[in-house]
Design brief:
single chain; alpha+beta; two-stranded antiparallel sheet; 7 helices; elongated
Length: 195
């Protein structure tokens, strides 16, 4: 076990530890690429097992992808259209953008539940560079979703005091928070060096 941890999961000699992988699938493929596993289908078998047993349920079959219709529900109460303001120019172009948006939406669902099921209203999600520039967004805005794991959403909860929401988010969201309550919305995001 010690050999496995020291040689394959941490940086060792010419190897880069697979604990640096962005996803569990990437880590499984890395173990084959770097020579830990000699079975060429090891990664696929390991991924299949992980998908069957992670959190006691298989991976979602109807995965959120850039080509889904705007009516697609990212989470039970948030549609792809809401996240893109129903604007085709704001449609995601890469899978990792969808994965980041899903993580943000899961947190929004928790907020919705905490505040009695009142609707979340998204005022800005993904902003491609041209749209980001036209609205005066920062050149390195999290709304650009320009790197894996980086993204943001601006929102408010209908019928709930924005300062109350901001206070709760400040205590429960582990990543970046824009204190936009005076402007009527909040910004939650994720950066490369999170939290």
């Amino acid at each position: 076990m010690y050999y496995l941890v020291e040689r394959w999961y941490k940086d060792f000699n010419i190897y880069q530890g697979c604990n640096r992988a962005n996803t569990r699938e990437e880590a499984a493929r890395w173990l084959v690429k770097e020579g830990y596993a000699t079975d060429p289908s090891y990664a696929d078998k390991l991924i299949k097992l992980m998908n069957q047993h992670v959190q006691g349920k298989p991976e979602q079959k109807d995965k959120f992808t850039p080509d889904k219709p705007f009516s697609y529900r990212i989470t039970p109460h948030i549609t792809y259209g809401e996240f893109t303001l129903n604007d085709e120019k704001r449609r995601f172009t890469r899978q990792e953008q969808c994965d980041t948006a899903l993580e943000l939406c899961k947190y929004l669902e928790k907020l919705r539940a905490h505040f009695g099921g009142k609707p979340i209203v998204i005022t800005s999600g993904y902003r491609p560079p041209a749209i980001n520039a036209s609205v005066g967004g920062a050149s390195n805005s999290e709304h650009l979703y320009n790197m894996t794991g980086v993204g943001a959403v601006d929102f408010y909860i209908s019928g709930v005091d924005i300062y109350q929401v901001q206070e709760y988010v400040d205590k429960t969201w582990n990543y970046s928070l824009g204190y936009g309550a005076p402007k009527g919305f909040l910004h939650i995001g994720m950066r490369l060096e999170r939290p």
